[in-house]
Every structure is written in structure tokens, then in C-alpha cells.
Design brief:
alpha+beta; six-stranded mixed beta sheet; homodimer
Chain lengths: 593, 593
């Protein structure tokens, strides 16, 4: 492998010389700036051997560097060994950002290239400007790897399926008209959408181009008369093609770059963080406006039919959880169980639920110290046996035909230590405080974030992932534009938005704790001060009562837990296996005396 | 007056025609984008007769409009009557922003002018671009009012006094070197500072150019060799001029515009929100960098000597409060007292304190419904008698030679209603939650804001002013860059920052409640999760115990109040008038049983 990487780098360097480039930047993105990419775009892995999900690669004529974050330091060091690629540990004191590294090491007049298709317009412009200040040229190129990577996986082209309006709650004609009215209001003439989960939402189509993400590679052009969907026509059955052809004209995926030149008249509206640089010249032909895709905002607020589907998905998930874990003897700490077995057990029960399509992301099942790595993924080698008392963080989710779930529970094997109970209770207090907060219209996620942290901060603890992300409707498990985190993302929470509520505490080498429900924004009355909103909790799975230190809870918190548990019991009791009912009853008994 | 306004408008319109302008924008700013301006810059009042502290004026060849916010709707409607100036109620549905109003009403090719000196570079650029899109020209002009306003007040030129290093805690040489090292790190060659309270801080000088703000009109040029202070030399005594001349060269205020052209070499660093448009051509000569003045960040973190001075100021303020209100019989609701009398009583006691310089802003004293107007200012006409039971919001502050205070207490005359006690307690709970929160390093004010609101939101109430503003050290009562509010101002709270903690509830026509202390950020330990910070409460004045509904408080809140009250008692007991001690003891008795 090491030798192969060396050959690939040499081959890339030959292409760089032909293109008169001194440096080549590999962003690791696809042509849509997606969070998860199809194998065709695993460029980072191809050129360095590193298989992690995040990282930036720089290649010069005599060196190569990979930047990645702390989750991957150990794995990357291991995988890069002997490849000639140096590991740059992001966030570590003294390690420069890739662009600063280039500025420090390049000589004036040098040229840095990157594949035009794998960088957003905004990011390209930012880097171009920064490099120009240092007398360096930043140029968007063809995909140099295409010529180096002989057995590169083809672009995915999975068959599309149609989501009926009875599940989607709105037909694509209606969705298009929403977009067109916002387009008109913006004063622009057309928009180009490159965000593939948005296109799946607009068209009410789903496919399987990306693992766990039921999307298909596509672009969409919309003006007041036309809507053109650029995606491989082979993926459509005749029936589906027929049924959508009154709304969209379908053109091949790659045709978008040529077609757009003739389709585009007047001012463009586009999301310059999501549209790749190959579109730059056309989109900026007239003084366009950049901003989030209109569809991103519309998609974020689930309609009543989608919300019903989300509720149903959570009933199914809750039933599967209870069926699965009623079979487990949590007193066993003799190695009977392991991380993968626990996660597979849940997956197997989920698979029995009607409308189940598969996981919504790769499950996380981390026992003991593994649970303290927030993005740990158990592999055959790492798979830890449950051979002593401890906590297991289980973060999993389902795609259903009619919705999606994302759930984390921290399971206890054997007896808990006082520290574990205290930490779990602090996480739970934050999780509950966020879920029960009423808030005024216009409130943004960053305002609510501290609710999940205030109790643990008092005890000198914190966590470093987001508190809540938006969730798609049988789409991507991470969906914007809203978030609940300390980052000042200026997007108000609106009725129908579904976000996660997932605080945690991670103690390196000891234990991890995370508790996650999905919650949906709902109306909560109007007063002389304004309109108020609050959350409806969608997830229906008991908390781990053996980890709750009730002496740390207020009466309000106790009653919140008890009424949640009684909701869980009522929703699931008739639906779980007969043999699981006693377990469900035990898990949802009132805590308050 | 109405007639005079008409004449002034006519005269301005003649100047507009000479300058080939169809519209003229009057921002109401001074040449430094200050929050409070000297009489010389009360341009809004001169041209419309409106005396409020905020508003934007637009004049066309046949119309004139004043935009102002809801605080001033009634006053503005009254003052504009018969002047020919139309009132535009900002924030009211259907009322366009000034720029949108121009775009809707101007014809292509028209020219909009504004005084170059009274608009920031950033705002100018933004408007210029927006207008250009609609085929309109936005031009920076001379001050057309100068030629219209014959008896315009002169620029202020009050004498400066020097703050000794024993009070300032750092000499100006040291402050300059802080700025120079940040300047070097930015890669820029010089900076122009236009923020006048920053210049007062850098130079350790104070004056009285603006009411309640001990500042002097000035600009400062700094590069690695020189520091030039542009301000009228007449304001210096020989002694002061001597003592600063080894650090700063002093040049006349108006000389800055010509001098800068020769002083400026290389790249500029400047705050384009604060530097006026007359500097634009010079500052943008080379590719400069814009950002907050380096001094703004340095000034925000009070040094240990300044903090000591702030603590001392709050002891003085607390003594004055107790001395003043021990004289008041709060059971009297027969008109014995009125708003101004109550506020004057406090002011008179403050004036007895050593080092007292005057109020830090115009006091707010609002009884009953007047207290529900957050920015109410009692005038001889509005001055309400306390002739029935009710709440009085008293928001006042002091300038001391060694610091500053800003304090709000809600006083009760007669007996409280259950609603008043509930509302006061909800405000207090928020105020306490913010003051006691421990938080991780890097936390920004917007993350903490909800702590002050979460209890009242639950009951369907809220407030619409900031929760906390930064406070100067014998400087401006509102000082950036940090804030505690819902606005995503991306400035972490750092040790030494002093902010207010002032939630409120305002019920129109009924009552207002606000409780305000100043709090300072301090270290609070380091754990495996990072460095933690928390607040030290500086203000030392009892809460109104008769308004506290202890049944709504947790044990933690009760003990927080009791330990605060015991701190207040200890700090003040020996210093208050002998006759006031019983009052102090009564006000600070423990609430917990």
C-alpha cells in the first residue's frame, strides 16, 4: 500500500507539472459539497491511504501533507506511515492551517491548483484572495486525479423511487412554486440548486447513491418557466419518468455544465457554499445574489404529514429498542456481549419494523473508554467485549419509508459508580432542560445551547460536539440550516423543524455518556409579549434509570422524566413483544415517590 | 418652531440643488460614530425639531421624513407636527427602511448625498452598492448643514485632565505598545483610531466634550514609530502637554484629514464601522484590513487596578443608596414623593462620595406605567407623583475618578400585588441565574443571554432590550465589544470584562421591573475539560425583599440572595450614616428560614 501511495503521488506530480502547478489541494469533497460522499470521490483515501471521514490534502512537487482532526490522529498516523505523506494535526498548537502552510512555504509566483468541481465558489474566492495577497496564484483545474486514478469507481447511478404525496405531504409542483415565489421576491431570474438532499426533497424522489443517505447525484435549474433536473436518466423507470415529466425536464448529470450556459438568463440566485467552482463564470455573469438554497429553508420545516411520519418512525424505533433490550441481561459483565453484538441486536429488531429501509448512519456502539471517543466506530478489530461493569454509548438511527430516527442511549452493564451516576444525571438534566424550554418566536439555536450545558459547566465539565443538529425526512441525518450549538448560526427555530437534543460527557480512558432524543418545534401560545414555541419530544425510549441520581434532580425534572416515561409506556405497550412488556414496565416506572 | 423647520428645509434644499442632489441623508452621527453626540452634531434635531436620541432623516426636494423607533413614536409625532417632516415608525409592519424608501421613490439616475464625515466607511460602501443596483448614485458630500445652520454650536473643546497610573493601572506607553504589537501581527503598517473613548483610554486623559461621557474629540494615528493625537491643543495645560509629549505628538483636530495623507505609508488597519468616510480614499489606498480597533479589545478587559477602582466605586454607590433610601418612607403613597425627587435624593447622596464626578448617564426614574417604558426619562412635565401603591424603576449610575457604576433597582411604594411579586421574582431569578453561572473559556455573551430569560419565557413574558452591555472605566456607560444579548456578537467573555446583568419585564400601562448589577468576569478554575470562568458581582445594593415571592425560589437561589445580602451588609455597614444602619440591616436580613 505504502508503495502504491508513492506511485500515485508521483503520477499526480507529473500531471501537476504538465498543468504548471507547484501545489495541488485535494478537498475531499464531491461536486455538491456533501457531508458524505460516494466512493467516486474518496480522493483523500486514494492519494494518502487515510480512510477517515474528514481531512484536507496538499501535495507539492516534493512533499505531501494530510490535515485531519483529533478524532483521527491515531488512525491517520498509522495509515500514513511509510507513505511519504506527513500528518498535520489540526487544532494542535503550532500546526498551521493548510493555506497558512502554503503561504509560509511557497515562493512568490507559485501556482496552487485544485479541482474546480470539488470546491465551493465561496471557498475558492476566499482562498484566491488570500493567496493573491502573498503573490500566489490559486487556480481551478480539471480533476487531475481522474487521469491518475485508473480504477476510480464510477459515479453512482442507483435507481430512484418515488415518495407518494400521502407520505411527503406536498407534491413537487407545490414545492417548486414555493421556490419560485421566493426567487421572484429575491429579484433574481433563476437559481441553480446543487444540494442533493434538497433536490430529493423537491422532487419527492429517493435513491441510494450515498451510504445511509437516500439521495441521487443531481443538479436542478429553476426559473419562472422551467425546471430542469440534471441526473442520469437511466435511473428512472418509465413510470416514474412519465409521472415527473410534467414538472421537470430530465437531462443527463454531466450536461449541466454546458446546458446552464444557454438556460441562464439574467441574475442568478445560488448558494456559493454549495455550488462548485465550475459554475462560477456563468453564475457570476450578471450581478447575482448568494444565499442558502430556498429549498433548504422550506425542507427544514416538516409539514404535518411529514411530522406524522416522524412520530410513527419513533414508535417503530421505540418498539425495536424495547424488543431488543428486553432480551439483554444487563447484569452480565463476563464478556457475553460485545459492542457489535449489542448494536446488531437493535438493528435486527429494527429490521422487523414495517417500512424500515436501513440505518440512517453508521451505528456507534462504544463500551467503557471507547464510549469516550464521540465518533468511535466499532470495527472487527476494536470491538470491545463487555467483560467488566461499565457504560455503553449506543448512537444509532433508522431510515423509514415515512421518516427517520436518530437516538442515543447510554446503557449500563453491571453496577454504576457514583461518578458515572453523577455524570449521567448532569447530562440528563441538560437534555431535559433543553427539551422543556418554552421560547419566544425568533429564538435561534445558539441561544438555547447553554441549557444543555449549564449543569455540567457548574461541575467543571463540558462537551465539544454540537448539542443538536437538524434531521431530514427520510433524507440526511444531518440537515441544516438550523443547529443547536454555540456557533452563532443566525437561523430562528420555526414550527416543524426537527432537531436532536444530545448533550454528553466524555472522560478519556474512562467513560462516555450521551443521551439523545429528537425534538420537533411546535406552537406554544401567544401572550401580550409575543408568540411562543416549544418542543415536542419524538423519541420514545426510556432513559437508564439505574444511572439517575434522583438526589440531584428537582421536582420539575422528576415529573418531566416520569411523564415522558408514561408517554413511552402508553405508546409502545400494545406494540412490543409480549415478552418485552415487563421490561418496558420496569424501565418506565415512576421515579418520584 | 414649525415655521423655522420649514425655512431650514428650504435652505437645505437650495444647497442640495447646488450640489446636484435629489435626496439628502442625515444620519445624526458625529464624526466618530459615537453613541452620544455633542450639541454640534444634533443635526437631526436642527432639521426636524425632534429631540429624541435616535433617528434617521431623509430630505428630498419636496419632502422630508424621520425614521425613529417605538420609544419615540408619541414624542416624535408631537414634535414633527406642522413641520412638513413625516414620521416613519421603524419596525411597524409596512414601514420601509430609509434605503428601501429611496429605492421605491427615486427615479433611476437620481443622486443621494450624505455628509462624508457623519457616516462610517462600511455603511457608506453598503449603501453605495445597494443604490447602484437600482441605478442610483450615493455620494459623500461636505456637510451641507454647515452652510444652513448659522448658529450651529461650535465643536466642543473642554480641558483635559490626566488619570494617574495609580488609577489607570497602565501607562499610555504600555497601551501603545500593546496596540503596536497587534498591529505588527496583523501585517499592517499603521492604524487610524477614531473611537474617542478608546483614545481617552490609550492616553489616560479625560475631558467633558459629551454629556456624561468623559471624552474629547480626537483621532489617533499609530505606526511603529509615531503616535499622533489629533485634538485641539487649547485643551491641554502646559503640564499635561509636557507629560504626554514624550509619547504623542499633538496636532489640531481638523488637521487629521490633511496630515493623514502624508503620515500613511503602507497598509492600514482600521475599524470601518467607526472611521468616517472622509478617510476612505487614504485608508483604502493600499489593500488594508478592517476590524475592531485593537484598543477596543484591550480596553474591555479591565486591569487589576481598574477592577479595584470599580469595586471601590460600587462601595460608594451602595453607601449612597442606603443613605438615600433609609430616609424614604416607602409606605407613603399620598404624593409625598415623585419620580424626580426620588432620583435626586440618590444623586445628592452620591455627590457626597469622594471622587464623585457626576452621573454616568441621564437617570431613569419611572413610576407605575412610566416604568414600563424602558427608556423613559422624567421631565418636569411628565414627572409622576407617587400617589398610589406601585413600582418605581430607578436606573442610574455614577462616574467616579476611579471607576463607574450603573445600577437599576425596582422600588416598591405601598403594598405589592401578587402579579408584581411574581413578575419581580421571575426577573430576579433570571438576574441571579446569569450572575451565578460558571462557564467555559470562549463562551460568548449570546450563549448566556437565555439564563436571564428562561424563567419568564416559561410564563409567556420577555423583554426587548439587551440583557447586558459592557461598561467603561470612567468612560462610556455602554462600551463594547462584548454584550449579553440574543445578537450573535462573536466576542468571548474574558477575565476583567465588566458587563451589566439587567433583565426586566415591562407591561404597558401597568408596571415596569428591571434589576441591574454590574458583574466582572473572573477565573474559576481549570479541569480536564478546560479553563472555566464566572462572574464577580460588583454592585452592592440590596434587592427589594418585599417584592420577592420566596415560594418561587429554589434553595440555591435563596442562598445566593442571602449571601449577596450579607456581602452588601459587611461592605457598607461601617460606611453608611449611623442613622441608615437599621435600614441596611432590615434590607439584608436572610430570607431563608
Amino acid at each position: 500500500m505504502q508503495e502504491q501511495i508513492g506511485k500515485r503521488l508521483d503520477s499526480l506530480r507529473r500531471r501537476m507539472k504538465e498543468a504548471d502547478l507547484d501545489w495541488y489541494l485535494i478537498t475531499g469533497s464531491d461536486a455538491h459539497m456533501s457531508e458524505y460522499v460516494a466512493p467516486h470521490w474518496r480522493t483523500r483515501e486514494f492519494i494518502t491511504g487515510f480512510t477517515g471521514s474528514a481531512g484536507t490534502v496538499l501535495v507539492s512537487l516534493d512533499g505531501a501533507w494530510l490535515w485531519t482532526d483529533s478524532r483521527y490522529f491515531i488512525q491517520a498516523a498509522h495509515q500514513l506511515e511509510g507513505t511519504g505523506v506527513s500528518l498535520m494535526r489540526m487544532g494542535v498548537e503550532g500546526v498551521p492551517e493548510p493555506e497558512d502552510f502554503v503561504m509560509d512555504n511557497a515562493t512568490r509566483g507559485q501556482r496552487i491548483g485544485t479541482c474546480a468541481q470539488e470546491i465551493g465558489i465561496h471557498e475558492f474566492d476566499r482562498l484566491e484572495k488570500a493567496y493573491a495577497r502573498h503573490g500566489l496564484a490559486f487556480v481551478a483545474t480539471e480533476d487531475l486525479l481522474d487521469q491518475v486514478w485508473s480504477d476510480r469507481p464510477a459515479l453512482p447511478c442507483t435507481p430512484v423511487r418515488q415518495m407518494p404525496v400521502s407520505i411527503a405531504g406536498m407534491d413537487s409542483m407545490h414545492k417548486l412554486s414555493l421556490i419560485r415565489s421566493r426567487l421572484a421576491a429575491s429579484g433574481c431570474d433563476y437559481t441553480l440548486i446543487s444540494t442533493i438532499d434538497d433536490i430529493a426533497w423537491i422532487t419527492n424522489l429517493r435513491a441510494d447513491d450515498v451510504e445511509c443517505n437516500p439521495v441521487f447525484l443531481s443538479f436542478m435549474f429553476i426559473d419562472q418557466e422551467k425546471a430542469v433536473l440534471f441526473t442520469q436518466p437511466e435511473r428512472f423507470s418509465d413510470t416514474i419518468l412519465d409521472s415527473i415529466s410534467n414538472v421537470f425536464r430530465v437531462r443527463p448529470y454531466e450536461a449541466v455544465y454546458d446546458d446552464l450556459a444557454s438556460l441562464a438568463h439574467g441574475r442568478a440566485y445560488y448558494d456559493d457554499a454549495r455550488v462548485n467552482c465550475r459554475f462560477r463564470d456563468i453564475l457570476t455573469r450578471e450581478d447575482g445574489i448568494t444565499g442558502r438554497d430556498f429549498s433548504t429553508d422550506a425542507k427544514a420545516c416538516k409539514n404535518p404529514v411529514e411530522l406524522e411520519g416522524m412520530r410513527k418512525s419513533h414508535v417503530m424505533d421505540g418498539v425495536a429498542f424495547v424488543n431488543a433490550f428486553s432480551q439483554v441481561d444487563f447484569s452480565l459483565t463476563d464478556g457475553t456481549y460485545d459492542e457489535i453484538a449489542i448494536s446488531s441486536l437493535f438493528a435486527a429488531e429494527r429490521a422487523k419494523m414495517p417500512g424500515y429501509l436501513g440505518p440512517s448512519f453508521n451505528p456507534i456502539s462504544g463500551f467503557g473508554p471507547n464510549g469516550a471517543m464521540c465518533h468511535y466506530s466499532a470495527s472487527a478489530e476494536s470491538n470491545a467485549r463487555i467483560d467488566r461493569p461499565g457504560l455503553l454509548v449506543l448512537d444509532t438511527g433508522s431510515q423509514f419509508e415515512y421518516g427517520m430516527t436518530d437516538l442515543t442511549r447510554t446503557l449500563l452493564f453491571g453496577e454504576a459508580t457514583p461518578e458515572q451516576r453523577r455524570d449521567y444525571t448532569l447530562v440528563l438534566k441538560g437534555h431535559l432542560a433543553l427539551a422543556r424550554q418554552r421560547f419566544i418566536q425568533g429564538t435561534r439555536g445558539y441561544q438555547l445551547d447553554i441549557l444543555a450545558k449549564m449543569f455540567m459547566w457548574k461541575e467543571g465539565m463540558s462537551f465539544y460536539h454540537g448539542t443538536g443538529h437538524g434531521v431530514g425526512f427520510n433524507l440526511n441525518v444531518h440537515e441544516g440550516p438550523m443547529r443547536i450549538s454555540a456557533n452563532p448560526i443566525d437561523v430562528p427555530l420555526e414550527v416543524g423543524m426537527v432537531v436532536s437534543d444530545e448533550p454528553g460527557i466524555y472522560k478519556e480512558g474512562r467513560h462516555g455518556i450521551r443521551i439523545e432524543n429528537l425534538i420537533a418545534v411546535k406552537e406554544d401560545g401567544e401572550t401580550e409579549f409575543g408568540r411562543f414555541l416549544s418542543f415536542e419530544t419524538l423519541s420514545l425510549v426510556p432513559y437508564e434509570r439505574r444511572l439517575i441520581d434522583t438526589s440531584l434532580l428537582t421536582a420539575e425534572e422528576l415529573s418531566q422524566i416520569d411523564s415522558y416515561h408514561s408517554r413511552v409506556r402508553e405508546a409502545l405497550y400494545d406494540k412490543v413483544d409480549a415478552g418485552a412488556r415487563a421490561y418496558l414496565e420496569r424501565m418506565t416506572e415512576p421515579l418520584a415517590v
